[in-house]
Write a structure and sequence with these properties.
Radius of gyration: 29 Å
Largest sheet: 8 strands, mixed, barrel
Length: 604
């Protein structure tokens, strides 16, 4: 973001998440609250630590550290030495201490109850920007969450669009209580040494049991006719409090900040031309939905991070090109291990990428039990989705789903020789990573006695197998992303029940959506609040995407050419498509704009 004034450049990374006009509105508030909060000072002499030489000069200290040149006053003018000592003008060596920076962190807990709904949350948003940058400046970790939320499911690190949207959508009718605070203190181990931990909310938070030793930021909206400001009191645990009054922006901008601060109002992202031999012929989202796998015409596989905003710099994708004589069978991305590509070489399968075991990472080769249990996609088909999960013992488990719906499991790699590749389930309609666990949907088995007549959700890697019934009788399924109101085990999940009926499984029950004929469902999504979740479908014109939910259908966007492939991410509010002209697009549902676009360059 080049339009920021020089005074706001320290927060450029955080402010770049927002459209330029809102970033300029937030900038003055960021600067004022940053001055009130102060810096996160490095551990000093009072905190001990291992001595590490000297770090500059100080006006205070014992005479053992008095600068050598100052002793000349004792020889030449003793009275001047006494005067300089009395007025604090002597120079002392300032000691430095080695402090374990990796152990430092800033924790922020924000009240999302009735006391802080509305305008106070604008101050919360500014505080998150300031405290995130403050922690980053000294290499400290930054952890935050909504006080009334479950720490196991709503603890965020760093600032990203999806986490901020999840927080904006987190509202509770219940005021913050000691029970909420106790759960967070236990989950984040804040009981004995809270460190740089902040409570953000109304002044009543100071009276909660367990608030002792925590720094606080009290946000109050004055109850005065025509008042359009917030009073913010910063109360660090070890420093004097400071007060700031924030004069708020115009009401329309306040509404944008509270509903969707990442909406339109910015320039389009750049388009990326690709060489003819590397044009994109297909794509899929990774197991966690945070990466997109691109399959190019030359047989290469790329793993690219999904940009968090149209203004973000797109990093160079990770690429794997299998050797001549091998054919890519499946590909996936691991959040802690990078790109995995399974390729067939003669009668064996070779894994490009090391597989994790309790003894360390190993190369892996696999062998099918017989030719009927080979997962190879037919000629011209895209590589299969490959997903990974690491159990508590440090063993990585791998699964893939072939074009016939069979779910394959890849056995633990051996030190020598090949491992087995075998069918675990004869039918699986969808697979995804949800809450750091892999799950899949098993369609109905048929009408024979003892067979399931409805779909089931299976947790992969658990023994004995855990199956959750899903009251849907067709089984075709899509996993999606929703910051709230999702199924506790499956996240946002849509399963086909009848020819035109789909069922959305939510935390509050099941929502039935009727899909018109000739529309092709490509995913399930959660649009910006207060709209309910729904299905994204491709219009019969093969170019228009529409959202079907409990409300009236609405058009989302229109592709530049007929669409040959489309899919929605289950890790963020993004979906993508590929046209018959080779144009690949990622679309952001929150900002209603293009996140990324690539197209084949003209042949020279």
């Amino acid at each position: 973001m080049t339009a920021l004034p020089p005074a706001l450049r320290p927060w450029a990374a955080q402010l770049s998440l927002f459209p330029e006009d809102l970033a300029l509105h937030l900038g003055p508030y960021v600067a004022r609250l940053s001055a009130a909060l102060g810096t996160l000072r490095p551990r000093g002499e009072a905190e001990g630590g291992e001595p590490q030489g000297y770090d500059g000069l100080s006006r205070r200290g014992p005479f053992e550290r008095l600068l050598v040149s100052e002793w000349l006053w004792a020889l030449e003018a003793p009275e001047e030495l006494v005067r300089r000592a009395a007025f604090g003008e002597l120079a002392f060596l300032k000691p430095a201490f080695r402090a374990p920076q990796g152990a430092r962190r800033t924790v922020v807990l924000l009240d999302v109850g009735p006391d802080q709904l509305g305008l106070p949350r604008i101050a919360h948003l500014v505080l998150l920007i300031v405290l995130a940058r403050r922690a980053e400046a000294v290499g400290a970790a930054f952890t935050w969450g909504a006080l009334q939320s479950d720490p196991a499911r709503a603890t965020w690190t760093g600032l990203e669009v999806h986490s901020l949207l999840a927080w904006l959508g987190a509202r509770s009718p219940e005021p913050a209580s000691a029970r909420h605070l106790s759960a967070w203190r236990e989950a984040l181990e804040l009981r004995h040494a809270p460190g740089d931990a902040w409570l953000v909310g109304a002044p009543r938070l100071a009276r909660l049991e367990g608030a002792e030793g925590l720094s606080r930021v009290e946000v109050v909206e004055p109850m005065e006719p025509g008042a359009h400001r917030l009073a913010v009191d910063v109360r660090p645990s070890a420093r004097a409090p400071r007060s700031v009054v924030l004069e708020l922006p115009p009401p329309d901008d306040c509404l944008r900040l509270l509903r969707n601060p990442f909406g339109p109002g910015h320039r389009s992202p750049p388009a990326y031309p690709r060489k003819v031999d590397r044009r994109i012929i297909g794509f899929s989202f990774s197991g966690d939905g945070r990466r997109v796998l691109l399959f190019s015409a030359d047989g290469g596989v790329e793993g690219m991070a999904v940009p968090h905003s149209p203004r973000a710099t797109v990093p160079k994708p990770r690429r794997v090109q299998v050797p001549s004589g091998q054919r890519v069978v499946a590909a996936g991305w691991r959040s802690s291990g990078g790109l995995l590509v399974l390729a067939r070489h003669q009668h064996e399968y070779v894994m490009h990428g090391l597989v994790r075991t309790p003894e360390g990472f190993r190369k892996a080769r696999y062998q099918a039990l017989d030719d009927s249990q080979r997962p190879d996609p037919p000629p011209g088909a895209l590589p299969l989705p490959l997903m990974s999960w690491v159990d508590p013992r440090g063993q990585e488990h791998l699964w893939l789903k072939d074009g016939r719906g069979r779910l394959f499991s890849l056995a633990r790699p051996k030190e020598e020789g090949t491992s087995a590749l075998f069918v675990e389930e004869e039918q699986a309609s969808a697979m995804a990573e949800v809450h750091s666990r892999l799950v899949c949907v098993l369609p109905p088995e048929g009408g024979e006695p003892g067979q399931a007549v409805i779909s089931r959700l299976k947790m992969l890697g658990e023994e004995p197998a855990r199956l959750t019934p899903l009251n849907a009788r067709r089984g075709e399924a899509f996993f999606g992303y929703s910051p709230s109101s999702a199924h506790p085990d499956a996240g946002l999940l849509a399963v086909r029940d009848q020819d035109l009926d789909w069922r959305l499984f939510l935390d509050t029950g099941v929502s039935v959506i009727l899909m018109p004929e000739a529309y092709r469902v490509v995913g399930v999504v959660q649009p910006p609040a207060p709209a309910p979740p729904g299905l994204v479908a491709l219009d019969p014109d093969q170019r228009t995407f529409r959202l079907f939910s409990r409300q009236s259908p609405q058009a989302l966007t229109v592709a530049n050419a007929p669409v040959v492939q489309a899919a929605a991410s289950h890790g963020q509010q993004v979906f993508g498509w590929l046209t018959d002209a080779g144009e690949f697009v990622l679309w952001d549902l929150m900002e209603k704009t293009v996140l990324y676009r690539a197209f084949p360059a003209a042949a020279s």
